[in-house]
Amino acid sequence: MKTATFVILTILGRGAAAQTPGDGPRFTSDGRLEKPENYREWIWLSSGLGMSYGPISEGMSNQDPPFDNVFVNPAAYRHFLRTGTWPDKTIFVLEVRSSVGKGSINQGGHFQGELVAVEAEVKDESRPGKWVFFGFNSGSSPAKPIPPAATCYSCHAQHGAVDNTFVQFYPTLLGVAKAKGTLKTPLGIAGTSRN
Ligand code: HEC
Fold first, then answer.
1. Dist CA 56 CA 5 (whole Å)
2. Is 92 in the pocket of ligand 1 (CB under 6 A)?
3. If you take atom 20 of ligand 1, which residue's CA is the nearest one?
């Protein structure tokens, strides 16, 4: 009896592990993405300040431009360092935060304030476009995929420097992509000055 219970538990344990390999994305059975609660323990790629290319930034004043912080799961990051490419099941999080000018001892410049939005992007080689976008903006998790007609898909595909992603804005990865020869030519938005 004990052996049988052990075997069943072992099989169940393996099943659960197969659904959630490593530090990659976790989906519900109907394809919604669970918000990765520990994304702030992932690899930080860069922070943009007041970058204006999308709807979230439009409502913000120029005086207090929002920050965006970009994180990627560690396994995908290590793969990128080796190859200059993103593996299947790479997951990025873009966290948008308000910026604050006055507070505590700060006399000038800006520091990061409240959370404004959390968005995600997952590489899925089984889908035609290979990348899927998600928004957790109303705090809702799991999130349904954003429909393929959304501008997320077209802007990233056209202007991302490596695959669908904005490596031209991630200073430590830009050199890796150059060395591995994986930058698109011509480069996207930042192409002229940094190429
Ligand atoms: C007009 C162009 C544009 C549109 C539209 C756009 N993005 Fe982006 N996105 C960018 C840029 C530029 C960056 C780099 C940000 C930085 O450097 O801080 C970025 C970065 C990201 C990242 C980090 C990973 C990466 O690809 O580099 C995620 C995740 C992301 N965007 C999600 C979204 C989602 C979700 C939408 C649609 C709701 C969206 N984006 C729409 C331009 C765009």
1. 52
2. yes
3. 166
Which residue lies with its CA nearest to atom 6 of ligand 1?
152
Q: What is the pLDDT along the chain (195 residues), one digit of tens a residue?
A: 444 544 444 444 443 433 445 899 999 999 999 999 999 999 999 999 999 775 555 555 567 899 999 999 999 999 999 999 999 999 999 999 999 999 999 999 999 999 999 999 999 999 989 999 999 977 678 999 999 999 999 999 999 999 999 999 999 999 999 999 999 976 644 444 433
Q: How many residues does the chain have?
A: 195
| Residue appearing with tokens 């930058």 | 183
Calpha distance 71→30 (Å, rounded): 25
The response to whether residue 57 sits with its C-beta less than 6 Å from ligand 1 reads no
C-alpha of residue 152 to centroid of ligand 1, in Å: 7
Residue of 67, 74, 75, 73 lying closest to 95 (CA atoms) = 67
Q: Is 156 in the pocket of ligand 1 (CB under 6 A)?
A: yes
39 with 136: CB under 8 angstroms?
no
166 lines ligand 1 (CB under 6 A): yes
Q: Is 108 exposed, middle or buried (0-12, 13-18, 19+ CB in 10 A)?
A: exposed
Interval between CA 120 and ligand 1 midpoint (Å): 9
CA atoms within 13 A on the CB side of 155: 10
